[in-house]
Amino acid sequence: MRISANFSYSDHHCSRPGTLVSTRAIMNFYKSAALALDHLEKNQGSVKGSLAAAGVNAVGGEAKRILALIIETLKYRPVLLQLLTTVPILSLEKLTFPRKTPFRAPSSQSLVLVLLHDLLFSPRARIEASDKWPPKPAVMRHQARLKAELVRIQIKEGKGRKEDLAKTAGDGEAVRYVRFNPNAGRTLEELFEHLTKKGYERLEEAVYPVPEGKYFADPHLPEVLFAFPGNSNWWVGDEWYEGGGAILQDKASCMPARVLMEEWVEGEGECLDATAAPGNKTSYVSALMSNKGKLHAFERSPNRFKTLEKMLAKAKCTNVKAQRADFTDSDPKSKELKNVTRILLDPSCSGSGIVNRLDYLVDDDTEESDSKNERLEKLAGFQLQMILHAFKFPNVNRIVYSTCSIHAEEDERVVMSALQSGIAKERGWGLARRAGVIPSWERRGRPEETGGNEDLAESVIRCLPEDKTNGFFVSCFVRNGLRPEDGVTRDQRPSKRPRDVIEPVAEDAPAEGGGEAEAGDERGKKLKTEAQVERARRKKQLQKAKKRKTVE
After folding, report:
1. Does the pLDDT of residue 44 top 50, yes or no?
2. Which of 51, 64, 85, 201 has a CA-to-CA distance to 377 between 20 and 30 Å?
3. Could you tell me the Gene Ontology terms of the biological process aspect for this record (predicted)?
4. Is 404 a catalytic residue?
5. What is each CA distance from 491 to 356, 365, 448, 487, in whole angstroms?
């Protein structure tokens, strides 16, 4: 799960009137933000995760101020880069901003971007640093020209205010979702009363965009999920949010837990979340279990495990047994796990569906396709391995596989590969039909990615930003379910990329969104798995098919 931009920028600066802050502290503030920007340039993780990943040791208020600067700089990044083209500070000030910077130092471009943001777009319109710090005068020497060029851009874009030049995440942020958590020991009626006191009026029907000061129950998850205007922030410092009664969670992210717990009966068995951090989905599964029974929660990353523990404590999830371990190392037949009947799989993915993460602003439309495809193949291999391991649990009868990705390589193609595996055929694994996978949701899978099988495509869920959610994919495996040889099939053109390119293991997979995606580096060193065997078999079949085609 990635951070949403809910920080007030007006107080992000390191200094306030009457407060003495050392030059070194100011330097570190800007450098930390620039280091995080460098990390995001490589498309690694989330805005919040970029701080730790870049080696920035900031906590509490300091971390929030740095995050606010990063987020605001990302919003104006296209304009700032345009300014650097017309006012080439990097080449005009080479001594201060060298092309190559020392190890663990931020790039000159990222440092200039955060400084330009504060000079041109911050509430105080100034760089909060001493004139003795070389980068400040190096930028200030070009202040007049920068402001003139900014006005020129503003006129060209037809914007009445310079703030209107900010890039936003689009329609996906027009709605903010709040999930009611009964585990906190309060009722829906109490929440409604609280929101009334906050000045919000509950509507009887869904209205988009959500009117200011209004909210309504989501049409697909009406008993737990509520939609608010995109600029809402009533939960900041609120007792309901702080006490775990109200949880910020995107609508699409709620769907896997809901599908997993379809027709759940207390006493059926135990549940398992294979990649549990940060804990939103886990806490929802716990609530759907009425906080009873046992819910196993796996998380291999030490840092993310701490986040998981905090979330579970905040959400009052007393039926969860969290363990810092790799799900793929677990023994399906162990005494501890033999009673598991349902598994939630939301593994590392590209995060391509996340629209309310601010690091989408670093995307380059000219990204090299080869690098992208290679990364997707590694991720798909890791995802397939997770599913095949889940298939081994002897008493499991329902497995939900989801991603916060819009790429077929991580979605339908992984599902089809899993269905065609030996263990799936041996143990009768198929897909649950649409009737058991939120049937009222209209957007379903892509038939061209399921071999033209419309029933298979209808059995999975797809979400896109125009649905007022993040991009998401949800599928549900059940015993004796729908298989590729079943259902209605229509002729389809083959996909541009065959499913057989899926690699078995991801070596550098980023963490969830979801998610913050954790890498699957250690998994790449494992012994040959069923995923590898299956891939080899399919690759051989593809080669034979190509030979036959050549002969013909």
Report:
1. no
2. 51
3. rRNA base methylation
4. yes
5. 37, 32, 9, 13
